[in-house]
Amino acid sequence: MMKEWATVISWQNGEAVVSCDVKSSCSSCASRAGCGSRILNKLGPQTSHSITVPCDHPLVAGQKVELGIAEGSLLGSALVVYMSPLVGLFIVASLFQMLFHTDLAAMAGAILGGVGGFLLAKGLAPALSRRESWQPVILSVGLPPDALRIDTSSSTDNV
């Protein structure tokens, strides 16, 4: 089970809208100057994602919850997203190469197959995301933000 902490934005009718912060691993790496991931992280403006998760007990805005998702669903979705364009690329490129016997045709087939595989993955995504085993669940709930108050003043300060 993959786990991540999220912050509750709102809760209504048994559904919680939670915000998950995007974590970047580029803060402490020694090769920050030449890192491609660091550059790509800077390009994207989105630093948090909001999702809706079913929850029976009431939650308040600002409360932390621990979300979990099964590894199998994560691997399955990655397989669909990455492999369908790759398989489409190779199959259609091979087919065009066999039919037309030119590299230009194979390149055109590779482009068509890659785009077709991407569209196939995009079409399969809504159906696969409705599976209950692929949905995130709330594993644990933190205290509401106003439930715990720590008084830092000591009794010697009042004397």
UniProtKB/TrEMBL annotation:
Name of the protein in its database record: SoxR-reducing system protein RseC
Assigned keywords, A-Z: Membrane, Transmembrane, Transmembrane helix
Lineage: Bacteria, Pseudomonadati, Pseudomonadota, Gammaproteobacteria, Enterobacterales
Transmembrane stretches, start-end: 74-98, 104-121
Domain of life: Bacteria
